[in-house]
Amino acid sequence: MKIAIVCYPTFGGSGVVATELGMGLSQLGHEVHFITYKQPVRLQYLSSNIKYHEVSVPEYPLFHYQPYELALSTKLVNTIKKYDIDLLHVHYAIPHAYAGYMAKQMLKESGYDIPMMTTLHGTDITLVGNHSFYKVAVNFSINKSDIVTSVSQSLKDDTLKYFDIKRDIKVVPNFINFEMLNFYKDDCRRYMMADDDEFIITHVSNLRPVKRVNDVVEVFAKILKHKKAKLIIIGDGPERDNAVNQAIKLGVREKVIFMGQSNDIERILCFSDIFLLPSENESFGLAALEAMAHGVPVISTNTGGLPEVNIHGKSGYTSNVGDTDDMAKNVLAIIENPETHESFRKNARNISEKFDIKYIIKLYEDLYESMLINSKI
By C-alpha distance, which of 260, 220, 268 is closest to 240? Predict the structure, then answer.
């Protein structure tokens, strides 16, 4: 199949998933065309089966905001015609599904009837899409897609709750590409971050308010009252200064390491003892899944799709949003007993393997095939 993928090219979960999916499809022999405004950060190589097409938006004084949707839909039309693309897979409802629909309509004028799949990732539904400015357009774009998928059952439920959806939504979860992971078993330099008697607690996010990074620091301070530990926070964003101030306020600043944006996430996960994710909302929880793949038990909230990934009492524990006492108690329940800790490590790894890309990519291939068959009827 020749597949055009539209996504955000940034570090966000939707862009990462879309890029990993495209690379996985290319390894199975499909021809994949990425169409976005810059090369996706996870796109590690180009090959005969992977092509990247940049969407450039000319600047005109007439426009206060440059019309990216118009440029994207035009680029889609030209690329689909030139390379005889079979299907279009857009990640994120706004603006991608909207631009995709416009491209479909323009292509019909030239005799093309290309099917489009829209994958919903989270904030395109719960935050951006549900805003009154965009809700009508998001609703329209979803209903005009040939197939719609969501990355969790929770997100599907939210979509049906917030919008007037007249079509089925398939749940296809996010995934891990285990073949691409580096586990650093023989190069796990724990001593660089903590003493032998210190536990390592890790948090990875974009440090936006929804991630509740202050809760991470608060949970850590409660743990320190009982166990020696270090907290490693990876990522950068608007809540970093608040988290630093929280650490100072709670008297734990010297035990907190702020790594900023880092390419060493896997190296750090290899020696992490617990992964903390106290988010206010997560449509799936890809960061939690990545930690579990490295055998790191997860302490998270029970919001959104997190309970579908982090299984309470097996791969870790889930708590209500803001309940830092319960989260700290759950951390201690795991790390205070080496046998318990090892059991949770094994469970986390085993559960994560169910989300291996080799299983999830087959779900997408089957949906692509059905979409192509239906488009020819």
Answer: 260
First to last CA, the chain: 18
**Residue holding tokens 């996960």?**
269
CB 294 within 8 A of CB 315: no
179-355, which class in CATH?
Answer: alpha beta
**Cα-based distances in Å from 203 to 122, 197, 278:** 20, 20, 9
Contact assessment for residue 120 and residue 93, using Cβ atoms and an 8 Å cutoff: yes
Give the strand pairing for 31-36 and 50-54: parallel
* pLDDT score, position 187: 65
Structure tokens at 297: 């038990």
Confidence (pLDDT) at 47:
76
DSSP three-state, residue 280:
coil
Is the pLDDT at 186 greater than 90, yes or no? no
Q: How far apart (Å, rounded) are the C-alpha atoms in residues 171 and 151?
A: 6
Residue 66 in this model has a pLDDT that exceeds 70 = no
Residue 352 CA to residue 12 CA, distance in Å, equals 20
**Which residues, other chains included, contact 160 with Cβ-Cβ below 8 Å and sequence gap of 6+?**
169
For the chain, what are the domain ranges?
2-175+356-376, 179-355
CA distance 28 to 358: 10
**Encoding tokens for residue 315?**
């791969």
Query: Any idea what DSSP says for residue 231?
Result: E
- At a CB cut-off of 8 Å and minimum separation 6, what does 39 contact? 9, 52, 54
The CATH class of the 2-175+356-376 domain is alpha beta
Same fold, 2-175+356-376 and 179-355: yes
* pTM, two decimal places: 0.89
Highest mean pLDDT among 92-101, 171-180, 295-304: 295-304
3-state secondary structure 257-279: EEEECCCCHHHHHCCCCEEEECC
